[in-house]
Amino acid sequence: MEKDIPFLQQILPKKFSAAxxxxxxxxxCIYRLLQSDHQPILDGVGEIDHFKEVRxxxxxxxTGDRAELTYLPENLPFWNRINAKSETCIGQKCADYEPxxxxxxxxxxxxxxxxxxxxxxxxxxxxxxxxxFGKVIPDYGAVIFDEAHLIEDIAADYFGFQVSNFQLEELxxxxxxxxxxxxxxxxxxxxxxSRINGFAEQxxxxxxxxxxxxxxxxxxxxxxxxxxxxGEDEALARLETEADVFSEKLPEADSVVRRVRxxxxxxxxxxxxxxxxxxxxxxxxxxxxxxxxxxxxxSSLLQEKLFDKVETCILTxxxxxxxxxxxxIRDRLGLDKVRPKRLWPNRRLTTKNRRSFICQKRxxxxxxxxxxxxxxxxxxx
Length: 381
Ligand code: SF4
What we know:
By secondary structure, the protein is α/β, with parallel strands linked by helices. It has helices at residues 4-11, 30-35, 48-60, 79-82, 101-111, 119-128, 151-158, 165-176, 183-210, 228-244, 251-272, 299-307, 327-333, 366-369, and strands at 18-20, 114-116, 142-145, 161-164, 215-218, 278-285, 288-295, 312-315.
C-alpha cells in the first residue's frame, strides 16, 4: 500500500484513489471503550497501565487501528473486549455510530476507486453480505485476487461454523452486564448467564481431558453424547427468552439475543453433524477450545456468492496450475460453471511450472492495456 499504490498513481495515465481495509477486530470500538467505565474488562492489575494507554490513544487516533499501538505488547488480553468485531456491534442503533472507526473506514472506502483488503476480510465480508451489522466492504464491480490459490482454504474457514469456550464466556459476560433497570429481571438474566457458564464447564471439560495438547483433532458425533450439551442449550434458550423482552428498547439486549440464536444454531449444526458436505473438527489452542464445521467443497458457495454476482473476477497466482492444467483449481473454486473466456499462462515467467490464470467476463485485451506504456522505469525497479 505504501509503495505500490503511490507508484501506480504516478505512472498510470488515469488518476485513481485507493483505500485499505482490515478486519473489524483490528479496530477499537468506541462504544465498548466507553462501556468499560462501568464494566470490569481487565483480568488483573497488570493490565491497568496498558488499558489507560489504549484509552488515551483512542481519543487521538484517526483510524482506531490496533497496529498504531506499536509501543504496547502484541497480545493485549482485553483487546478482544473493546474491539469492533461484528458479533458485538449494535450497528446503526449505536450512539457512537458516526464517530465509529468502522463507519469512518467504510466512508473512506466508499469514495475510493480501489479498495485493498486481505483474503480474510474479503471472505468474512462475503459470508455476511446482506447482514446490516456485518457488511464492511463497499459494493464492488470487479475483484482481483492476488495469491488466488489461498482462496479455497480461507473461504472454507469463513463459510463454516464455529463455537468456542471464549465465545460462550463472552456471551455470558455481556448478558450479565446488560443495562436493565428492573432489578428482578436483571437478576434473572445474571442467573441464566451463570448457568451458561456452569454448563459450559461440564461441556468443555471432556474435550480438555481427551485432548490435552494443542492441535487439530477429528470430532465425532459420539463425543457429544453426554448431558452437558442439553443443559447448555437449555441455558442458552432461557437467556434468549429473557433478553428478548428488552430487544426492542435495548440494542445491547438485541445484540445478545442475536448472538445466542447464532450460537445455538452453530452448536446444533456441529453437534448433529447431519450435513455430509462438512468436516467436523476440534482445535485446541492454549486455553481455547474451538469446535468447527468447515465445508468440504466451497465451489458452489463461491459461485453463488461471488462469481455469479460480480461482473469481473481476476485470479492470479504463481501456483494455480497442476501438471500444466487449471482443471483442478477451476473445479475447487466452482469456475468450471462460469466458463472463463481466457486462461492465460504467462510464458514470460522463468520458472517452468509457473502460470498466471485469469478468469474474466469483461476484460480488455493485453494489446488494449498498452502494457508497454506502463512499464516500470528502470530507476524504480
Ligand atoms: S457502531 Fe459498532 S463498532 Fe462502531 S462504535 Fe458502535 S458498537 Fe462499536
